[in-house]
Amino acid sequence: MKIEVRASQIFEDAYNMIVAKVNEAKEYPVFTEDGLLADWMEKYALDYSFTVLDVGYGGRTQLAPITREEAKHVAAVVRAIAKDFEAVYPDYAEEILAQMGFFLVAAMRAKYLFRQTISAYPKQDEVAVMPIIPQLIRYVKTPAEPDNPAYTDYVENSWRLVFYSTRISGVYHAYVFGQPGQKFWRPSRERYKEFVIAIAANHLVGVGQALPVRLFRIYSRGATDIAVQGATQVVDIAKDEKAMLYVVRGLPAFFIDYELSGGIIEEIVLPAVPPVEEKIDKDVRVIGIAFVRYERVKDIETVVVK
User: Which is it for the CA torsion 273, 250, 195, 13, positive or negative?
Assistant: First the structure.
């Protein structure tokens, strides 16, 4: 079935279920991890891990209603991401669509925070919904607390992720979010340029080169004792000579909120095959959507990291 048709069906199911749950609760803006949110999480077969990480939805989180038009803008972005994968990796396209409910609830959190209309084509005093781009991970050249802790091993304005050799253990190591020394990544708190991001489950996609991630660890300032996890499938390859995609399996979905979250660290490890270089870089995309205040994306100059 074509992505457009599937996306429409999934959107209707997710939107109607969320509306029904809110009406049943007789109140905004509360979803709880052991109540309404868990019900929909179970329906859409998502990973619960991000609630444990305390990076956005742990406990009671305040949300605000979004209009059907705003929900359609969110769904259009999710559909566009899935469409990108449809030709070379249809199973992964379906995985993205299956998380529609997660992205809609993330939109409700963004609406609560920003109190502005969500639009795919925002104007002044509106919030953009868009796919995650490199400039929303390494969003300043020199990261610094408290407003711009954009700590990461990504090169600015690029999906090039730098892996460093640890020589002793024979592996390469990279931080998708964060840096060594408990430097936690968090969206910007810079006034009028705030944003939040919703990261899909199985969200790391290597393009063109093998990405044999063996281990990963994701933890937050509020939950630093989470152990290292193994990727459930080392690589999943779309067998197309023109577009080889490698999806890291086992990664949870999570939402990063500049207000509730103290920040997050996501680190991944690759085996180092001799000859071992001091560092290597790979094209690694983070799949998900962002809700961004207008002032950050009003023109190219405000987006590009200088």
Answer: positive
Residue 249 CA from chain centroid, whole number: 15
Q: Which of 279, 281, 132, 288 is nearest to 209 (CA)?
A: 281
Residue 204: name the closest of 163, 164, 257, 240 by CA.
163
Which of 147, 149, 180 has its CA nearest to residue 164? Answer: 180
Model-level pTM? Answer: 0.85
Show the DSSP H helices in 26-89 as ranges.
36-43, 49-52, 68-86
Q: Where are the beta strands (DSSP E) in 77-135?
A: 117-119, 126-131
Retrieve residue 122's tokens.
Answer: 């925002």
Exposure string over 279-296, b if 16+ CB within 10 A, otherwise e: ebbbebbbbbbbbbbbeb
User: What are the boundaries of each domain within the chain?
Assistant: 3-297
Q: What is the 3-state secondary structure (H, E, C) of 170-189?
A: CEEEEEEECECCCECECCCC
For residue range 136-171, list pLDDT tens digits in order. 999 999 999 889 999 999 999 999 999 998 756 788
Which own/partner pairs from 84-88 qualify as long-range (CB within 8 Å, at least 24 positions apart)?
85/245, 86/3, 88/238, 88/240, 88/242, 88/243, 88/245
